UniProtKB/TrEMBL annotation:
GO MF assignments: oxidoreductase activity
Source species taxonomy: Bacteria, Pseudomonadati, Bacteroidota, Sphingobacteriia, Sphingobacteriales
Family label: Belongs to the short-chain dehydrogenases/reductases (SDR) family.
PANTHER family: OXIDOREDUCTASE, SHORT-CHAIN DEHYDROGENASE/REDUCTASE FAMILY (AFU_ORTHOLOGUE AFUA_5G02870) (PTHR43639), SHORT-CHAIN DEHYDROGENASE_REDUCTASE FAMILY PROTEIN (PTHR43639:SF1)
Protein name: NAD(P)-dependent dehydrogenase, short-chain alcohol dehydrogenase family
InterPro entries reported in the protein's UniProt record: NAD(P)-bd_dom_sf (IPR036291), Sc_DH/Rdtase_CS (IPR020904), SDR_fam (IPR002347)
Pfam families: adh_short_C2 (PF13561)
Keyword Oxidoreductase: yes
Alphabetically ordered keywords of this record: Oxidoreductase
Presence of the UniProt keyword ATP-binding in the record: no
Alphabetized CDD domains for the sequence: SDR_c (cd05233)
Membrane-spanning residues: none
Organism, scientific name: Pedobacter westerhofensis
Amino acid sequence: MTNKKRVAIVTGGAAGLGLAITRRLVSEGITTVMIGRNEKNLRETAAELGSLCSYKVLDLQQVAAIPACVQEIVAEFGQLDILVNNAGINHKKPFLEVTDDEFFHVIQTNVLSVFAMSREVARLMAAAGSGSIVNISSMAAQYGIPKVIAYTAAKSAIEGMTKAMAVELSPLGIRINCVAPGFIKTDMSSKALDNDPERKNKVLSRTPMGYLGLPEDIADAVFYLSSANAKYITGVIMPVDGGNSVGF
């Protein structure tokens, strides 16, 4: 359903969950600009999805380059209606072995980039009096998962930022929400779980629905939260996890 021209940014929009989100937004007639590091993936995705899909090459660790990137997009498309902060990295290592640099690297990529991107986009949305920002969290922020201390800290920060941004920005017409994916079936997760039957059984046994989600399930939730159907929803953390976060 499309009422008017809309323009979206999806960070990390050419791979994994980001790709599913990009596909969904484009399928709804939303002009979607992917931001990412891998120009080959970005170019191939844009070619596949057609004229509504374009991209900007940017390593989001380069926080100082974010304002200029956002301005380029606005100059090209004239507006910004939706921001999906999807890009992020993980670092799996026992807590006692994680170095300061490793911890900061994850925080810089996963938290500082979300802050800077949201700030720049929200300034434009505030001037327009409307907009929707959807952040992507993780089950790591819902309960303790071993060997991902930096990722857990980052995703917990994003959930807190979602609430703080919603309180401050919603009076300006900007809704801020967050999707917390559960265990989603991707090539990477399937390979990891298939090679570790004990972990796979643990994941499925505490997921009441009894199976892994699909990337499209996350994309559907993101689209819903960014759409007019969610016009009175702001500041929520929505687990899309088959009940995993409440399972026992």
